[in-house]
Amino acid sequence: MRKKIAAALAALWACVGIVGFAACDDDTTSAPEHRWDEGTVTTAPTCMTPGVITYVCQDCGEERKELLDKNGEHHFGDYETNGTLHWRTCTLCGETEAAEHTLAAVDGKENEVCTVCGYEVPLNEYAYEITFEGEHATITVYRNDDYTAAGEQTTTAWSRDGDMGVLLKNGEGQVNFKIEVDLGYKLSEEAVTVSPKTYKNLKDPSETGAENTYRITKITGDITVTVHTEIDALDLPVMEINTENAAPIVDKENYVSCEVSVSNT
After folding, report:
1. Which end of the chain, N or C, is surrounded by fewer C-beta atoms within 10 Å?
2. Contacts of 230 (CB under 8 A, 6+ apart)
3. Amino acid 122: pLDDT
């Protein structure tokens, strides 16, 4: 009797397994299809090599792999530069990407810097140099036409575009500067001279519309600006004392060497 019951149960389980509980990895015609997940990229494609995406059956765990097309995404190395261009090369396929520098002023740096590769461009490669000479005056240079903006005190300037302040070496550059004369002096009748004649115009304050401010336009070469001053002393004699090496006078006991001159006598 027991043998008959065991045989009947075995037959029943076999029947149930075939009809309702066949796994998707069973090699039978009645096995259900795999239920694949959304897939995971197990090898990313590059510009040179295809990738691999792997699907896993949510029922039996079987894996299925498919190739992904090459995507053209380069793996670039560091930028290389010269005075005009920056470029970088794909480490996989060797393709090179090149472009001209994108220059901008950067706080704390005298020179302009490329915003893409970081190359610091020497000013004299992109602009003409303007050197200021003269005594008893301070020169403040403006990067554009906005004379209300803070300028920089300097003895050297560079030809720039008037609107944006971009460096120019194409004959269209200009420089705008303001003269602050030291106490006891004034600009002479000559005021400002420029040499050599590698520019078009020298405009005075009446033309720029800004007090004590001058503009040199269409600069085509390096130039020197000389500021001429004279004593402004209401017709009284003036004594000028210049200590050696500009040494300070700190007390009445320690003497320093000096030169003394009297003018406007």
Report:
1. N
2. 185, 186, 187, 188
3. 76
pLDDT digits (tens, 9 = 90+) for 181-196: 998 889 999 999 999 9
- C-alpha separations of 225 from 80, 104, 110, 130 in Å: 38, 26, 21, 7
Buried b / exposed e across 146-160, counting CB within 10 Å, b at 16+?
ebeeebeebeebbbb
DSSP of 8-52: HHHHHHHHHHHHT---TTSSSTTPPPP-B-S-EEEE---SSS-EE
Q: Measured between alpha carbons, how far is 195 from 95 in angstroms, rounded to an integer?
A: 49
pLDDT digits (tens, 9 = 90+) for 70-107: 888 888 999 998 877 899 999 888 889 999 888 887 76
**Rounded-to-integer distance, Cα 25 and Cα 31, Å:** 7
Q: Kindly report the CA angle at 210 between 206 and 213, in degrees rounded to 5?
A: 85
Contacts of 235 (CB under 8 A, 6+ apart): 264
Name the nearest CA neighbour of 238 among 246, 230, 250. Answer: 230
> Predicted confidence band at 235 (pLDDT cuts at 50, 70, 90)?
low
Q: Is 218 left (phi over 0), alpha (psi -120 to 50) or beta?
A: left
Three-state DSSP class for residue 100? strand
Which residue in this structure is represented by tokens 């090699």? 27
pTM here is 0.49
Q: Give, in degrees to the nearest 5, the angle at Cα 77 between 76 and 80.
A: 115
